Amino acid sequence: MTTFVDRVILHVAAGDGGHGVASIRREKFKPLGGPDGGNGGHGGDVILTVDPQSTTLLDYHRSPHRRADNGRPGAGDERDGAKGADLILPVPEGTVVSTRDGEVLADLVGPGASVTVATGGRGGLGNRALASTKRKAPGFALLGEPGESLDIVLELKSLADVALIGFPSAGKSSLVSVISAARPKIADYPFTTLVPNLGVVTAGSSRFTVADVPGLIPGASEGRGLGLEFLRHVERCSVLVHVIDCATLEPGRDPLTDLDVIEAELAAYVPGDLLGGRPLAERVRMVVLNKADVPEARELAELVEPDLRERGYDVFIVSAVAHLGLKEWIFAMARAVDEARAQMESEIVPQRVVIRPKSVDDKGFRVVRDQDGGETVFRVIGDKTTRWVRQTDFSNDEAVGYLADRLQRAGVEDALLAAGAVPGATVLIGPPENAVVFDWDPTMVGGAELLGGRGTDGRFDDKSRRTNAERREEFHARKDAQTAARDELAAERKAGHWTDPDSV
């Protein structure tokens, strides 16, 4: 059964924002007391944080789909919806977060280090927040914005100062068990070590960690054996120790050949840029000739030691069983680690805060002319315009008019005209896979979708209402007409035009 996992693909989704609500206050003797719809709550974020108690990514291997809580919708009486709870995922220290395309998002080193990998959607505004002097009683609200959703790759790269590397059964686990308090699994068959084992070693005032890396074989950098899976655990190590088995009975094996094979695998492996990108072959390296308690192995080690020193390696003849040569080797590792730490500190460049203000002519969007199936379309690309479209309830005409107002004020119509759009052109707003399609009409009536020009609402801005002067003029004209009619009737009576001819 798998108990250690150091690489997983995690599918994360932030919470959706809650919808705003369109509500009208209703009280006794005040049936229309004004808009009082509350805003929706923001969706929860997905956050990765370093947990000292976490040592493996096994939980995410078993449950790779994780989602944060959605924001709650608003309610009447100006009640805003609650924010969705953030989803905090604990990961081991040394976890590298990247996209499937290989783009590194974060390197989580240090207790409490965290990164937000998916941001929750914004909550929609209620009609109370949308009210203005011209739109006093909005009959719509904005929808909540969907949260971000993406796939991320988590890779655990051990935080060790020294890595013990070599062929299977070279005695790496035995050495870790005698120089530290670690108790890795030890057996007399290859690939006993299936997971990296970390041990803490103290040498005088120095204290450093040693990683026992699973055995490497020829072709490990190309995926053979377990080497490719665990070479990532030596990327952070500043000192590499070749552990060579001088007592092996396998044909074709000798200390110099084993060293050349492992060096070739280190040279073929390319570490990540985020971790310095320094090739493994350029790290400080030393050679440990192990199993010197066997007489034949001791003779072989003394025979090849001069050749190894000529190559520039520090060579130590040791035995994990007899505790031979361990003290000298431990202090040599401590000196190499201290030198590497001092060099690293000198290379650290203080981080500067870079402020990149937006350009004064940055509109927050751009219009791109494109071809879609032989048809010319115009794509409006921008985070703000995409968010506006996502928050629009297209079943509500007034909400659609409000969107048209926002786009017009932002200058989208002017940009479309400049790009060559004509009435009836196809306009797409939003991501290509889920864009909203419009048939553009620059003369389209906006506002309240009732009567009037763009930005007006016929319910409270009726341009057909008469002015006071027009009312007075109409009143006097009516009075004058009534007086003229009475005078005409009186003149007819006086002239005898009302005499009945049958009575004559």
**What is the overall number of helices?**
11
The share of residues in helices is 25-40%
Domain module count: 4
Specify the biggest β-sheet: 6 strands, mixed
Structural class: alpha/beta
Strand order of the largest sheet: 10-11-9-12-13-14
Number of strands: 18
- Order of helix and strand elements from N to C terminus: EEHEEEEEHEEHEEHEHEHEHEEHHHEEH
Distance between the termini: 129 Å
CATH superfamily of the largest domain: P-loop containing nucleotide triphosphate hydrolases
Unreliable sequence segments: 185-194, 219-228, 443-462
User: Which architecture of the largest domain per CATH?
Assistant: 3-Layer(aba) Sandwich
Rg computed from alpha carbons, rounded to a whole number of angstroms? 39 Å
Shape: elongated
At the first level of CATH, the class of the largest domain is: Alpha Beta
Mean pLDDT reading: 79
Binding site for Mg(2+): 173, 193
Domain OBG-type G: 160-338
InterPro entries: G_OBG (IPR031167), GTP-bd (IPR006073), GTP-bd_Obg/CgtA (IPR014100), GTP-bd_prot_GTP1/OBG_C_sf (IPR036346), GTP1-OBG_CS (IPR006074), GTP1_OBG_dom (IPR006169), GTP1_OBG_dom_sf (IPR036726), OBG_GTPase (IPR045086)
Organism: Nostocoides veronense
